[in-house]
């Protein structure tokens, strides 16, 4: 890995390129309120974030990314449309791979605009594509919005659809829920025994934890309601599996998804958005016929994205994380904007990796 001074210089160069594209440079605090991140990601965030406690501000986390604080800043007082760029360190705990950096620089480009989401997606991707083109990286794209639309179109309860949406970014949990809701996997014995009781609380011991008796009773009632719901049909499960199996060049993927949409019309609007994005990318000089698309791309590492996603990787260095990633996060602006929202898309480059790969060429 290059010296840190060289990485800082490369970060400054990249940020200058984003400024030339019209972005306003911004800074965010290194210490971020833990409550916001926990609300967004749940307790899972603790496994990859450094936490500390402040006597006045409560639990804090070393900045795990820039997108959340930038969205908060924009939703509080940003003009529209807006383009921002940043450069700074993020911090990620590494418990499984000691070779992965726990502290590294990111340089990013974020676009908040209402007028044309496909054009904004193409703008961000194409800009990063041009910057990284000398490195010969492999670009891959996906669209979480297509899978979300498929879940929303299932003929099942809203409670089940909400559970599936919540776990789209956890493929194993998502599959386990699909299997359970379709009847392919049995209800766990402990849960079945609980639901068979006339009054589960009658044999309960002292309450332990944060939930009171009414919350526990509501949860049991929800489980009983779910147990009575009809299973998701094999045909619908097959359509979900067909979407997840799409891994083609973009134009071939579009054809496959249009065929699936004939049997699952709920994804038609999302597929049309994919078509508009490909047209916009072509207008930016991207060879969409060669651009890889994977419907499940980003599901293990891009939790706040809910639409277009992309990444750039070095094919001859599978040991390295992506040099750049990004995507659309409209839902995040809605959650952090307390009901207000604005379409938003962004991407980030890791200057240390880019510099190292450039030096190796």
What is the CATH level 1 assignment of the domain at 1-120 and 129-137 and 339-361? Alpha Beta
Spatial strand arrangement across the major sheet: 1-5-6-12-11-10-7-9-8
Unreliable runs? none
- Can you tell me the CATH architecture of the domain at 1-120 and 129-137 and 339-361? 2-Layer Sandwich
Q: Radius of gyration, rounded?
A: 22 Å
Strand proportion: 15-25%
Please provide the ordered H/E string of secondary-structure elements: HEEHEEHEEHEHHHHHHEHHEEEHEH
Q: Give the fraction of residues assigned to helices.
A: 40-55%
Identify the quaternary structure here. Answer: single chain
Number of strands: 12
What average pLDDT do the residues reach? 88
The name CATH uses for the topology of the domain at 1-120 and 129-137 and 339-361 is BirA Bifunctional Protein, domain 2
Overall body shape: globular
In short:
The chain has 361 residues and is α+β, with helices and mostly antiparallel strands. It is 45% helix and 17% strand. It has 14 helices and 12 strands.
Question: What report would you give on this structure?
Answer:
With 361 residues, the protein is of the alpha+beta class. Among the domains are: 1-120 and 129-137 and 339-361, BirA Bifunctional Protein, domain 2; 184-230, no CATH class. 45% of the residues lie in helices and 17% in strands. It has 14 helices and 12 strands. The protein has helices spanning 4-20, 34-41, 67-77, 117-132, 144-152, 158-166, 171-181, 189-196, 213-228, 234-244, 250-263, 268-283, 330-336, 351-360, and strands spanning 24-25, 31-33, 51-54, 58-62, 82-91, 103-112, 138-143, 247-249, 292-294, 308-313, 324-328, 344-349. The strands form 2 sheets. A 9-stranded mixed beta sheet has the order 1-5-6-12-11-10-7-9-8, with helices on both faces. The protein has a 3-stranded antiparallel beta sheet with strand order 2-4-3. Strand 3 and strand 4 (58-62) form a beta hairpin. Helix 4 (117-132) crosses helix 12 (268-283), helix 5 runs antiparallel to helix 10 and helix 11 packs antiparallel against helix 12 (268-283). The longest helix is centred in the N-terminal third of the chain and has 17 residues, at 4-20. The chain starts with a helix and ends with a helix. The mean pLDDT is 88.
């Amino acid at each position: 890995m290059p010296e840190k001074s060289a990485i800082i210089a490369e970060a400054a160069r990249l940020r200058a390129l984003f400024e030339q594209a019209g972005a306003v440079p911004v800074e965010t605090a290194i210490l971020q309120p833990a409550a916001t991140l926990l609300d967004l990601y749940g307790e899972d965030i603790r496994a990859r974030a450094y936490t500390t406690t402040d006597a006045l501000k409560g639990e804090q986390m070393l900045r795990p990314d820039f997108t959340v604080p930038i969205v908060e800043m924009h939703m509080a007082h940003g003009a529209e449309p807006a383009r921002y760029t940043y450069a700074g360190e993020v911090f990620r705990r590494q418990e499984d791979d000691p070779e992965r950096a726990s502290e590294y620089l990111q340089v990013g480009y974020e676009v908040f605009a209402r007028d044309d989401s496909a054009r904004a997606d193409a703008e961000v991707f194409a800009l990063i594509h041009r910057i990284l083109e000398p490195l010969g990286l492999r670009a891959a794209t996906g669209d979480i919005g297509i899978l979300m639309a498929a879940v929303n179109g299932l003929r099942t309860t809203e409670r089940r659809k909400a559970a599936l949406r919540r776990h789209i970014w956890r493929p194993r949990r998502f599959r386990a829920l699909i299997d359970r809701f379709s009847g392919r996997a049995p209800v766990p014995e402990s849960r079945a025994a609980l639901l068979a009781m006339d009054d589960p609380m009658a044999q309960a011991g002292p309450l332990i934890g944060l939930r009171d008796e009414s919350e526990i009773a509501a949860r049991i009632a929800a489980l009983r309601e779910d147990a009575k719901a009809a299973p998701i049909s094999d045909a619908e499960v097959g359509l979900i599996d067909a979407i997840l199996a799409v891994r083609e060049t973009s134009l071939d993927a579009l054809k496959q998804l249009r065929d699936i949409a004939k049997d699952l019309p709920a994804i038609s609007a999302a597929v049309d958005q994919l078509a508009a994005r490909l047209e916009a990318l072509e207008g930016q000089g991207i060879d969409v016929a060669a651009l890889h698309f994977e419907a499940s791309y980003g599901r293990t590492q891009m939790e706040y994205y809910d639409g277009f996603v992309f990444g750039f990787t070095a094919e001859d260095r599978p040991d390295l994380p992506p040099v750049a990633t990004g995507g659309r996060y409209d839902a995040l602006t809605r959650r952090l904007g307390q009901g207000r929202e604005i379409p938003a898309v962004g991407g980030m480059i890791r200057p240390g990796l880019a510099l190292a790969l450039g030096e190796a060429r």
